[in-house]
Specification:
This protein is α/β, with parallel strands linked by helices. It has three helices and six strands. A four-stranded mixed β-sheet has the order 1-2-3-4, with no helix packed on it.
Length: 119
């Protein structure tokens, strides 16, 4: 991961990205590799990859670099605080996390792989 030099990035945003390292790696990304670059991980409750793997990542000590921000899978809505979900039509609803398409739906947009044109 390199964030300096010509063509460097000004911000990094991931959608449904898993935790990929321990605390030392997260610190390396935040302090050494990308010290001046905001890193934001968008997540939601209906994402099966995150829902099914978070307990494992907790047990083995994996952490996120940057910050984790909850969002709505179906609406262009970010949830800044725990009580912020009140305005959502989905407030209080825990989505079942089982469909891989739910891993690809963020902020009302499908962000997953697409078939090549012409198929």
């Amino acid at each position: 991961v390199e964030g300096r030099g010509s063509g460097s990035v000004s911000e990094l945003v991931t959608f449904g990205g898993p935790r990929i390292g321990d605390g030392a790696y997260a610190k390396y990304v935040n302090v050494d590799a990308l010290p001046d670059i905001p890193v934001m991980h968008l997540v939601h409750d209906a994402d099966p990859i995150l829902a099914n793997n978070d307990p494992l990542w907790d047990r083995i000590g994996f952490e996120r670099s940057g910050i984790e921000v909850c969002c709505d899978p179906h609406l262009p809505q970010l949830y800044v605080g725990e009580d912020d979900r009140g305005g959502s039509p989905n407030a209080g609803i825990k989505f079942p996390a089982w469909n891989i398409l739910d891993h690809c739906k963020y902020l009302g947009v499908y962000v997953g792989p697409r078939a090549p044109l012409g198929l």
